[in-house]
Design the sequence.
């Protein structure tokens, strides 16, 4: 059973030692990479470019990234809720599904290449960490909605800047 979000909920370190019995938590932590001791959001974000590279390898055009992103977002809300309960925090660093799900958005207007993959990754991390206006406001949405929404918006910011930089990157 998931731990309730209370003052007595286990710390993330203690949670990392508990076995994951809920498949939703396993997915929310990016198959466990969210348990990285240093920068779990950045480590978990590595799954994002790999996801987009996989879509590209399957010849999924980048215009199809919008429906993929929508599905990942909608699935992510309950997954992130489960992860938040497991860690006992509203937006725990160990929950990285939100980072992963943002990446198809980043490449909506830009083809994925090794260079755009790296630049998009870096841009996303900058926006996700800095949380310029109004990203931080979206974090205030309840539960999984807030966990997912701020990263979606960071992905949109990264998409816009990446699109602007595209002529320089080609």
Sequence:
């Amino acid at each position: 059973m998931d731990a309730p979000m209370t003052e007595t909920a286990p710390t993330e370190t203690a949670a990392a030692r508990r076995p994951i019995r809920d498949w939703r938590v396993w997915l929310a932590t990016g198959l466990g990479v969210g348990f990285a001791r240093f920068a779990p959001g950045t480590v978990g974000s590595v799954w994002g470019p790999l996801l987009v590279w996989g879509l590209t390898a399957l010849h999924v055009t980048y215009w199809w990234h919008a429906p993929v992103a929508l599905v990942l977002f909608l699935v992510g809300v309950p997954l992130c809720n489960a992860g938040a309960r497991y860690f006992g925090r509203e937006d725990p660093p160990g929950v990285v599904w939100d980072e992963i799900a943002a990446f198809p958005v980043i490449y909506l207007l830009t083809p994925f290449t090794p260079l755009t993959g790296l630049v998009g990754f870096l841009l996303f991390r900058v926006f996700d960490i800095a949380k310029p206006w109004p990203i931080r406001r979206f974090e205030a949405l309840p539960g999984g909605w807030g966990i997912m929404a701020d990263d979606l918006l960071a992905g949109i910011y990264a998409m816009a800047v990446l699109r602007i930089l595209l002529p320089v990157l080609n």
